[in-house]
Write a structure and sequence with these properties.
- This protein has 111 residues and is an all-alpha fold.
- The protein folds into 2 domains: 67 residues, no CATH class; 30 residues, no CATH class.
- It is built from 5 helices and no strands.
- Helix 1 runs antiparallel to helix 3 and helix 4 runs antiparallel to helix 5.
Length: 111
């Protein structure tokens, strides 16, 4: 399901990027250098092209992260919260404390 959704979104992005080329007919190009237009549209067009590609790239990255499950709100970089009993068991497993120490401290923690 995720793979087909990814393929569909890539296909839609390709189709959407071709729409401006289809929208302009040969009749529209006759008056391209209309004297009243000025040169401002060239700057605005360049900025819009940059904004379009940045938006498209961000959307693709977010879609891939969502499909892969990497951005689901929980961060794997944060360590899980350990209880004192977990730490005690870890120290016993490493051999830092002996069995008698472990039993005494476990009894104190459970009280």
């Amino acid at each position: 399901m995720k793979r087909s959704l990814l393929h569909l979104s890539i296909w839609l992005a390709g189709v959407a990027s071709a729409i401006p080329a289809v929208a302009q007919t040969y009749g529209d190009r006759d008056n391209f250098w209309h004297p009243g237009w000025g040169w401002g549209h060239m700057y605005f067009g360049g900025l819009m092209m940059i904004a379009f590609w940045v938006t498209l790239i961000v959307l693709v990255v977010l879609l891939v992260r969502w499909l892969s499950g990497a951005g689901g709100g929980t961060s794997s970089a944060l360590p899980a919260r350990r209880t004192p009993l977990d730490i005690l068991q870890e120290r016993f497993a490493k051999g830092e404390i002996d069995r008698q120490d472990y039993e005494e401290r476990k009894k104190l923690l459970s009280d």
